[in-house]
Amino acid sequence: MTSSPEPGEFITLLTEDEVKALYAAGRPRRWDRGATMFTEGDVSDWVLILTSGRVKVSSHTAVGSEVVLAVRGPGALLGEFAAIDGLPRSATVTALEPVEGITVRDFSSYLQAHGRVAVLLMQMVTGKMRDSDRKRIEYGAFDTTGRVATRLVELAERYGEPDNGGVRVALPLSQDELAGWTGASREAVSKALRSLRDRGLIETGRRRVIIHDMEGLRKRAR
Questions:
Q1: Mean pLDDT of 76-82
Q2: Residue-averaged pLDDT of the chain
Q3: Which DSSP string do the residues of 168-191 spell out, in sequence order?
Q4: Conformational region of residue 138, where left means phi above 0, alpha means psi within -120 to 50, and beta covers everything else
Q5: Per the database record, which ranges form the HTH crp-type domain (predicted)?
Q6: How far apart are CA 152 and CA 160, in angstroms?
Q7: Strand locations in the chain, DSSP E?
């Protein structure tokens, strides 16, 4: 089942004709929760356009710990680096929930036939680089609680739903994965969540967070 694309994702930047041509060049696929679509270091040249579900993009350090680079949802384009430069995959992409998408093998030919999309892709890649730089700055400038608050605000803005005056987020990440997304240990993330709960900013449960004070959480994130 196709979900509405998230604002700002790749597919939302295309015209209806560009989307039709892109989907016509590919084929639909489905993955179960926990399935791996791309594996870091693999050599393959196809891209994936998510149509439903969320995934995590991750990499591993030299000692084997996982670093979560991003969480992506419907409308996202994944795997474009390897499709363009032919180098091995730079990250692993794993389904956080059941996922559907369109796989396109000859993405370069599509870009050659749609020059405007190639320019949009270049802008999108630049945006990813800027976001990566911003996160590196966060790791050096913010404490763990600030980084956790920042990621919760990001999830709430993208996936949150109203809930009795607050914002409910169906959290797709475990505490271990949230730790990998914030550059902290699981114990530090657990302590940060407890601190945010004690301040009355959030309420946590299994795989979900309710944000009671969004502005307060934003201030703590800053």
A1: 92
A2: 89
A3: EEE--S-HHHHHHHHTS-HHHHHH
A4: alpha
A5: 142-215
A6: 10
A7: 26-31, 36-38, 47-52, 55-60, 66-72, 77-78, 92-95, 99-104, 161-163, 166-170, 202-205, 208-211
